[in-house]
Amino acid sequence: MPKYKNDNAETYYAYSIPEEKKKLITKQFADEFIRQLILVFGGDDSQSQADWFKESGAHITGTRGWGIALNKTAESLGCPELYEYYNQLEWYDSDEFDGKLYDLVCERSTKD
């Protein structure tokens, strides 16, 4: 995890998804991840998948279902290294990863 200093010369750490992993989170990944989450958690036809994710996704990050959907998505798209990376993170880094993944999926699932 990168280490930084603030204006008071105090050290703090900030997590970011490594670029080589972030590149794997494409529009196709985002759409498939949402689809897998809906299969795990259920959804309805009253809204788009992207809208369902924006409403529900932040509440389900870090759950077992989130991890299952991430694993299935990574396997189905041929990038198991993304799940392997996620699975080896310490809990506090995986929480950060989940939040950043949520933001990326929101952003990329709405692209044409």
Write the layout of secondary structure elements.
Elements: E1 3-5, E2 11-13, H1 19-22, H2 27-41, H3 49-60, H4 64-76, H5 80-88, H6 91-109
Major sheet: order of its strands? Answer: 1-2
Number of helices: 6
The major beta sheet can be summarized as: 2 strands, antiparallel
Percentage beta strand: 5-15%
Q: Could you give the distance between the termini?
A: 33 Å
Low-pLDDT residue intervals, each spanning 5 or more residues = none
The SS-based structural class is mainly alpha
List SSEs in N-to-C order.
EEHHHHHH
Oligomer: single chain
Number of strands: 2
Mean pLDDT: 90
- Number of domains as seen in the coordinates: 1
Name its key features.
112 residues, mainly alpha
Give an overview of the whole structure:
It is built from six helices and two strands, in the order ββαααααα. A hairpin with a 5-residue loop joins strand 1 and strand 2. With 112 residues, it is mainly alpha-helical. The chain is globular and about 50 Å long.
